[in-house]
Amino acid sequence: MSWLAYQRRVRDVLLAEDPAAADIAALGPDPARWKAYRRLVRTRFYRTIDHAFERVENLIGAEPFRRAVDRFLAVGRPRSIYLRDIPGEFLQFLQTHWKTLAAELALADYVLDLARYEWAELETAYAHQEVPTIAVVPLEMHRMAVLTPAHRLLDLEHPVHRLGTEQEHDALVRGPISLCLYRDPKTHDIETLELTPVAARILALVERQKFPLDEVVRNAAEVAGTPIDIAFVEALSVLLADLLERGVLWGSLADTNQK
Amino acid sequence: MAVRGVGLGLRWALVDDLLQRPPPELAWIEVAPENFMRRGGRFPAALAACAARWPIVTHGLTMSLGGADPLSPEYIRTLAEFVRSVESPWHSDHLCFGIVDGVAMHELLPLPFTEQAAVHVAARVRQAQDALGVAMAVENISYYAKPGAAEMDEAEFASLVVEKAGCSLLLDVNNVYVNAKNHGYDARAMIAKMPLDRVVQIHVAGHDDSDPELIIDTHAEPLKSDVYDLLAFTLSQIDRDIPVLLERDDNFPDWPELCGEIAKLAAIISRAPARQEHAS
User: What is the C-alpha to C-alpha distance for residues B157 and A245, in angstroms, rounded to an integer?
Assistant: First the structure.
């Protein structure tokens, strides 16, 4: 067996849900020790993924959650060299194979929403690029607005972020909601904002970095069927001031080519 | 700032105590770049606070020097930036493989002790060294199983790699101890046979010996007296002042207990022949 073939066999034994005894024996004369490696590798992944999705695991139970992780390790397979990214890969796997896994493990739809929310919290906490690497000027409507990289926008079918709060009675009841998670620049704590449909549309368009803020606002109002009247402008002003104060909005892109 | 004396691996669970109640003997900090690269928030803030106080040495986890996948240019570029930013005097990674066809196992998996493997690893170390722009050191790992027939022992393998790569050795004394117990050889003899003239740094850690059939290098236990003794023996074989790092990754003890281990290591270093000669 070539060295590469050997490495592949080791990988398969470590990550398979239930490796054949013959495959383990093929690695060398001491299968018990390769089983020890298997325990070490899997324990590290279990701990990392369990930690990231604590609320999902509590909600669905340890055994179904472990089966989903086992399936990910065997089929999806961890790829990032950053261990902290692996839960995000697990979430991708869950999303891709959701119908199969949900049927097999009897998972309700809100489980996927909760998994997306839990990962968004971590991803926001990990987000790098602390200071702007682009020139940012104070917010102006005719320029493109700039969001902190330490934010995530989420559109969920269930308000699962309310779990563990005073409003948790409806956390698992279907009801579409848009969220903005961001990292407080001073405390590094992760905060979650519930967004109105107009605010969600504005932030989603700002995130795409294609249009100046005035066009973004016009589009959001049009899609929501809201007239741009005094009440709208006042609410917009409050929203933008709040986002600036929280550090979600950094300002505007200092690009003189913008109209 | 020169790197000498006792260092401690920077772990998130230790940061507050480290910054608020630093042990007087602590002289430097080791960081795993993968835990800090491409990461914002609390981690870079803690690293900056440590870097203002102590020299930083980088110790990587995922270069997969024995693997067949090409070294990731993106990883190496980001790593080079990180190593430069903390002014690490060298960068180390392990004599192992951990990535196969893009699948990352996040484990230090053993290499066959063969000339072919040594040549392969050495070429990758040279490649990494050139790309990073800083000297590399390779670390001997704890290995629990042997992948295929060996042509040489672990010390000969390490010697061949460092010779062919022109790199240094990060000698993990606890790993030699664990391997000696698990594979039935004499730890001191293996240490003495290692390329000690190439050692630039030493690691010590605790291990789990609750299963006498297989000792596991956990970094989650207090240092055992045998490992302290083996460290003293190792330092007695080296005529230079070598920095020693305490690795503690899990099952963290009370801070005073950890500080006690650091003080004990500092005392062993101070009694080493290299220090004694320097003092006299």
Answer: 59
**pLDDT, tens digit (0-9, with 9 covering 90-100), for A87-127:** 999 999 999 999 999 999 999 999 999 999 999 999 999 99
User: What does the domain layout of chain B look like in residue ranges?
Assistant: 6-275
Complex ipTM value: 0.95
Closest C-alpha to B175, from B218, B137, B233:
B218
Q: Is it true that domain B6-275 has CATH number 3.20.20.150?
A: yes
Structural domains in chain A plus CATH codes: 3-107 (no CATH), 129-253 (3.90.930.50)
- Residue keyed to tokens 């509590």: A58
Say yes or no for a CB contact (<8 Å) between B112 and A183: no
Q: Which residue of A has its CA nearest to B110?
A: A7
Of A33, A52, A15, A76, the closest CA to residue B106 belongs to A15
Q: How far is B61 from chain A (nearest CA, A)?
A: 9
- Please check whether residue A145 is in contact with residue A199, taking contact to mean a CB–CB distance below 8 angstroms: no
- pLDDT (tens digit, 9 = 90+) per residue, A156-200? 999 999 998 888 888 888 999 999 999 999 999 999 999 999 999
pLDDT of residue A98: 97
How many residues are given for chain B?
A: 280
Distance CA A124, CA A188 (A): 10
**How high does pLDDT run on average in chain B?**
96
Contact (CB<8Å) A127/B144: no
Are B41 and A126 spatial neighbours (Cβ–Cβ below 8 Å)? yes
| CB–CB contacts below 8 A, A to B | 104
